[in-house]
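This part of the workshop introduces the protein records we will be handling. Each record describes a single protein and holds just a pair of labelled lines. Instead of coordinates, the fold is spelled out as a row of discrete tokens. To make this concrete, we reproduce a full record directly below:
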Amino acid sequence: MIDDKLMSDLNDKFNSIGQDLETHLKGLLHNTPLTYWDYIQTDALLNLQIRRSSLKDEMVFILYHQVNELLFKMILWEIEQIAEEENVTASFFSERLYRISRYFDMLSSSFNIMGDGMDPEQYLKFRNTLTPASGFQSAQYRMIEFSSTELINLIDIRFRNTIDRNTPFKHAFDHLYWQAAGKDYKTGKKSTLLTLFEERYMDDFIVFMQKYNTLNLWTKFKDLPQETKKNLELQNAMRHYDYTVNVSWVMAHFNAAMKYLSADGKATGGSDWTKYMLPKYQKRIFFPDLWTNEEKTNWGITNLEKLTPLDSSLNIE
């Protein structure tokens, strides 16, 4: 026997959206049971892997990067929750940041799959079929950066003094740190890697940058009440996320790549990957005011895995 209150609640729900409850109940008569494979769309997922060579380990490479993209989607989902929350509390902010950090911890540790899980000889052969494609072209990862911090913190360190909040988004975009992977600033010439990436995503990126100009994690934090900003749990969550993304994950990526490529070698897209990837060159820091001057000077050089709370000497406005 169906509970009367349940029926009343269902009736109120469908009335509120201008729908007839009885019609929906009749529809249930023809529903089929939900299965795991239908809910997860297993068949679709398992048919998205298309190799471009006959080499077996290429499948490992494809699946690994597809898993990365799924985790990036989870990260963006969490960031969006913070961005859209009107009255953000320290606990809400911290909880979402630690969720995101756990996803990046998975990403960092998973590089062993590539570093130790592919035959180098096979990789050095099938990578030639991938040119000019590159993991550099992950649009979701760029969106994670845009939604994490203010644009100034993503500008190539050589040009930060020439960029401010009044700079047009397109100009800022042209001076983002990762442009160095495919652009000669003296001639303005761009690599095929960068040109194809911009043709596909630049317009979307500009819209996304505009949206998160005031909703990024760093701006959301700075807009919090002073008392909330001094919450040590939140500060540590911010610092942990910042270091995990901009040092731990990046260095795990770099070290995995070094097993297959020499430090002066080129990535599949032809980029000089050491110059734009390594933290010590670009000093990518999402939340600069949450780090001491010494920590920023030694960013990517000194091991800061054991993060400590900020002390009172830092004035967080």
